[in-house]
Specification:
This protein has helices spanning about 25-30, 45-60, 70-80, 95-100, 175-190, 195-205, 215-225, 235-245, 275-285, 285-295, 320-325, 330-335, 340-350; strands at about 35-40, 65-70, 90-95, 105-110, 135-145, 170, 210-215, 230-235, 250, 260-270. With about 350 residues, the chain is α/β, with parallel strands linked by helices.
């Protein structure tokens, strides 16, 4: 889905290494040194990890972090291929790739005694199989350049407008962002997770307007920054990051409602650094860390019950009760047909 040579293709998002200002004075108590390998989504998530999470983790443990930014399906594939000697100690995934990977036995049971911040997570944010915890939510809306698009879009159907020819950007099916949107388009056309035919029909109609197909939401954000696309399906955290950099970009609410993607973290089975991996996850769900992550520019939905919704996040939802009304994907129904759906989308965009 990503190989059309006549379309701009961006491989990686940008990174940032600024201090988060959350470091405590407890290094002496927790310091143990070492290093863990972990993953991130490219783009704003990677920047947030480097600028907020990693400094706190290093201060508390004395350990370094080897961070790889890639789509979650790639993280899962590499972990499955090297189960005996996993390439990562901790994995950041979306709910869909996690559910698909469970049967492969690549996750360790979460050691709750090493992750004390789990006590502040509602039960709905703890994997019932004991293999992970939910660490955030990302909201999907219509992103657009308000300097070039004066009338804010009001629905997904607006992407089909002839004036947007060559101006629409899309991430591929390897990105959960596009998967969730395709499921939504299927449902709006009378389909569901087990029938994407209405979404295929929409995608065929949309292709004349598509000027860029990218591998990840992070690279899609880069296209906005470079002024190469003017409208797309996008996450609120990536858009918030671009706004903080002065990029002309805004978010519009589709008339059919918001979409929500939940992100999870896991410890790799056979990791040699499981204790550090547990401490890393504990850092990600720490109240101070999640408060910073949910604030400007990222506006990620927190899962720790001690974290109040920031002013910026309240532009999308006032509280967790409102978030729970957002649309989601039934991954147990979608995942068995993921390869089939991806092949079909590839055929559509290559025509």
């Amino acid at each position: 889905m990503y190989s059309r040579l006549d379309r701009r293709f961006v491989m990686k998002g940008m990174t940032a290494v600024a201090s988060a200002g959350l470091l405590g004075s407890s290094r002496a108590a927790f310091a143990q040194g070492g290093e863990i390998a972990t993953t991130s989504f490219p783009g704003a998530w990677e920047q947030a990890i480097r600028s907020i999470i990693i400094p706190v983790f290093k201060e508390r443990t004395g350990a370094n972090v080897n961070l790889t930014a890639q789509n979650p399906n790639d993280s899962v594939s590499k972990a499955i291929a090297s189960k005996a000697n996993p390439p990562y100690d901790a994995l950041l995934l979306d709910e869909g790739p996690y559910i698909a990977a469970k049967e492969h036995g690549i996750f360790e049971t979460i050691p709750t005694d090493l992750i004390p911040n789990m006590k502040d997570l509602p039960a709905k944010f703890i994997d019932p199989n004991g293999l992970g915890v939910f660490v955030s939510g990302q909201i999907i809306r219509i992103a657009y350049n308000p300097e070039r698009i004066k009338v804010p879009p009001k629905s997904w159907q607006d992407l089909l407008k002839p004036e947007y020819k060559g101006r629409v950007g899309l991430a591929g099916m390897g990105a959960t962002l596009n998967v969730a949107w395709m499921v939504e388009m299927a449902k709006l056309g009378g389909g569901n997770e087990e029938n994407l035919e209405p979404a295929y029909k929409f995608l065929r109609r949309l292709m004349p307007n598509v000027g860029a197909l990218t591998i990840s939401p992070g690279s899609l954000a880069t296209l906005f920054q470079q002024g190469q696309v003017d409208i797309s399906v996008h996450y609120n955290n990536n858009v918030g990051d671009l706004q903080a950099k002065g990029v002309p970009i805004a978010l519009a609410k589709p008339d059919t409602g918001f979409l929500l993607i939940r992100s999870t973290m896991h410890i790799a089975k056979n990791s040699r650094n499981q204790k550090l991996a547990a401490q890393y996850i504990n850092t990600v769900i720490d109240p101070a860390v999640q408060t910073k992550m949910s604030s400007s520019p990222y506006h990620l939905v927190p899962t720790n019950s001690k974290v109040a919704f920031s002013e910026g996040l309240q532009r999308y939802a006032k509280n967790m009760s409102e978030i729970e009304t957002f649309k989601t994907v039934d991954w147990t129904k979608f995942n068995p047909r993921f390869a089939e759906y991806t092949d079909q989308c590839n055929r559509i965009v290559k025509r």
